[in-house]
Amino acid sequence: MAMNERLRTELEEFKKQGVYKTLNHLDSPQAARVTMEGRGDVIILSSNNYLGLSNAPGVVQAGKDALERFGAGTSSVRFICGTFTIHRELEKAIAELVGTPAALSYVSCWNANESVCATLLGPEDIVISDQFNHASIIDAIRLAKGITKAQAAVYKHSDMTDLEEKLKASSGCRTRMVFTDGIFSMEGDIAKLADILELAQRYDAFVVVDDSHATGVLGTTGRGTAEHCGVLGEIDMITSTLGKALGGAAGGFVASSEEACDYLTQRARPQLFSNALPCTVAGSAMAAINQLRAQPEMVTRLHENARYFREQLIEAGFKPLEGDTPIIPVILGETAKAIEMSRMLLDEGVFVTGFGFPVVPKGEARVRCQISAAHTRDHLDEAMTAFKKVGSKLGLI
Known about the structure:
Layout: H1 2-17, E1 33-36, E2 39-44, H2 57-70, H3 78-81, H4 85-98, E3 102-106, H5 109-120, E4 126-130, H6 135-147, E5 151-155, H7 160-169, E6 176-181, H8 193-202, E7 205-210, H9 225-228, E8 237-241, E9 252-256, H10 258-267, H11 269-272, H12 279-294, H13 297-316, E10 327-333, H14 335-347, E11 350-351, E12 353-355, E13 365-370, H15 377-393
Parallel strand pairs: 2-11, 4-5, 4-6, 6-7, 7-8
Antiparallel strand pairs: 1-2, 3-9, 8-9, 10-13, 12-13
Helix pairs in contact: 2-12, 4-12, 5-6, 7-8, 13-15
């Protein structure tokens, strides 16, 4: 068929450019070390398993228990077949964790973000988005523009002057929604939440924060960007994932006022027409939240590990982007170089992913290191030895 032939040609071009992505196969649970592609004992520096809970015995057992008690799932959407008590218990725990009156679970944060814009905004409203927001936010805005004719604007990354200009220019809109990531996934930097909230109050705007890389990560007890910035309980709406620090399986949520969550329950298409979160995932996520509450020292260890590895990279001669998060990008320039460095590091027993265009802007390809509380100093030192060896071969240090 003509379509298949075109796709085959374009895939061959990806390979020639060195930007073709391969999917590495894991033969063991996600952890600090894994078995991958038949290689034993590979150190993972490319996972969102920030607290090391993906394979924690209590988290795994809770998923099994939920499967035994509730079965595989709802077999349909919640308003048709009913909702399990475990979903309500999880939503209550999520709201308490992130500091909102209510929460609503989804099968992914991507679905949650789609719900927010396409359900809450119409042609009289505008969503103002940070330039470096995640693809799920970008697509959610595109969807809202197409379906509900909502207006949209983009402000320069973390530029409060530009955000204020966009807010002034949209004074005639019924609702002005400011949508930002908490931690920007490719840069590893943190949104200026206190400044955003100050502007939102001045211009009567509604603030939404996608905290997917910050839930369980930022703040002294892992409650997210709001805790880190000293504004816990002041964010209008938080979307986030259960598929990173909180168990690592899947799932997402919206946390906000009772009215907002109820409205999304009534009108959001991804909620109305998708099966509920699988019970085993809900059980595991609930256990992860409980473990985070009981052991906040996991968050402290995560921050210490991230600080240590960043310092070691700088000492070795690499130039990671500045930041205070477990996301540590090392900029290399061209996509092919990032892919090559990733391949060479895997040969040395370290798995870290190379990213290039269109995931990041042209000329800013990188390997993105992601640190976990599950890493020991020995893991990090071993990984640094590999970085130095590969960096020397590629002429980076």
